[in-house]
Amino acid sequence: MSKQFLSSIFSFNQSFRRFSYKQVKRPSLNQLKDPNEKAANDKRPKPTLNEYLRAKISSIGPLTVAEYMKASLTYCDGGYYMNKDVFGRKGDFITSPEITQIFGELVAIWLLHEWQKVGSPSPLQIVELGPGRGTMMHDVIRVLSRFGLKDLLSVHLVEVSPHLSELQAKRLCQSSEPTKDERYYHMGETSSNIPVLWYKRIEDLPNGFSIVLAHEFFDALPIHKFQKTDGKWREILVDYNVDAKKYEFVVARKETPMLKLFLSHLDLDDEREHLEYSAEGHQILEHLSLRLEQFGGFSLVIDYGHDGTMTDTFRAFKNHEQRDPLMEPGSADLTANVDFKQMRKYVGKNDRMITFGPIKQLDFMKKLGGDVRIERLKESATPDLISQLQSGYDKLIDPNDMGSIYKVFSMFPSVLRKHLSKFPPTGFD
Ligand SMILES: C[S@@+](CC[C@H](N)C(=O)[O-])C[C@H]1O[C@@H](n2cnc3c(N)ncnc32)[C@H](O)[C@@H]1O
């Protein structure tokens, strides 16, 4: 996503926070049931996203930022990702694979190279977390098929949005259909007969050697926010101000359960006074690292983020512009920068994974031969297409924009430590 990183604007989240004084009533279990988890045969009308958020706040008190973010993005009716196509120039943001085919092609070259270095294990599962419109996977499959891999490949997509999974199926498959299987909810086949399966959760993926791709996935996962106030850590919550008719940030008066958990992970040398933590991201990374260690494989993560330096990065984008994340939930993309330092720590637990990066997207693409590839593509392109290809590539490697903002990070099982110290992953050497 070409999102501007206006650090001055980030700080607006921190202003005008008051303490939460709200009394906590006992929740009505019926009212609070997450409609995403309702039984398929339950035909009672579902509350709208706003009704759901406000009912929750009025019965159990202010929500964590993570609860607010999760519902705003993935609530079944009105969650940002659930019912519409939000990508592209006409949408709210545009992502690298949507800008130019070179992006997905270079990712394919990278994974092909790393797969060959570890002895070309077969069969090969290519997994993507949060594939959006399916554009990157489309380019990856195209390249891998050209290298004769189609007979040993299967594609596995972890996607929570029914609408986006339909777009992905249209993009990738010649035929596809919903399934009644408990683990994968949709399946199809590409025109070159590569099976494609869709999952709601990473835990449902089949065992086996996997290459796991995640482009702009981790930034979309819900985060908790913590702030040091009068020398004490407190969680920031989201309340609804009935008089002003708007959502607003408040500071929890007491330690919340998530704060206790977070403090147990906090590095004592961390001097920041405002921190963000994605429990869902942590859980996914925990599962991913266990899976890669047990069944083999490796992972490439590309996202905007930092190495344990940023503080208040929770924000919203609509029509390519940044705006208040608490305004009209469900109408804008909510996001927070990925903390690669935390990521390294979680997957490195018990010496499970060794990691490389984060490095700048610019360096990654150049080291993978992006400059040569773009010239090759231009040789057979029409004049219109030539300038489109060049401007797309220039955008991705712009050192003042996407080239530096986006970071590339990879993880491999520790058993490969010796091998990788001699032959580091391409682009990270
Ligand atoms: C910012 S978009 C990135 C899309 C794509 N990777 C790209 O770069 O164009 C985030 C994607 O993650 C999906 N997503 C968000 N939260 C998810 C979750 N908890 N589980 C699975 N997919 C999720 C969204 O539906 C969407 O496809």
UniProtKB/TrEMBL annotation:
Keyword terms, alphabetized: Methyltransferase, Mitochondrion, Transferase
EC number: 2.1.1.320
Family annotation (InterPro entries): NDUFAF7, NDUFAF7_sf, SAM-dependent_MTases_sf
Subcellular location: Mitochondrion
Source superkingdom: Eukaryota
Entry annotated with the keyword Nucleus: no
The UniProt record lists the keyword Methyltransferase: yes
Biological processes per GO annotation: methylation; mitochondrial respiratory chain complex I assembly
Xref: Pfam families: Methyltransf_28
Gene3D superfamilies to which the protein is assigned, alphabetical: 3.40.50.12710
GO cellular component terms listed in the entry, alphabetical order: mitochondrion
Catalytic activity, reaction form: L-arginyl-[protein] + 2 S-adenosyl-L-methionine = N(omega),N(omega)'-dimethyl-L-arginyl-[protein] + 2 S-adenosyl-L-homocysteine + 2 H(+)
A GO MF term: protein-arginine omega-N symmetric methyltransferase activity
UniProt family annotation: Belongs to the NDUFAF7 family.
Function field: Arginine methyltransferase involved in the assembly or stability of mitochondrial NADH:ubiquinone oxidoreductase complex (complex I).
Protein name: Protein arginine methyltransferase NDUFAF7
UniProt source species: Pseudolycoriella hygida
Source species taxonomy: Eukaryota, Metazoa, Ecdysozoa, Arthropoda, Hexapoda
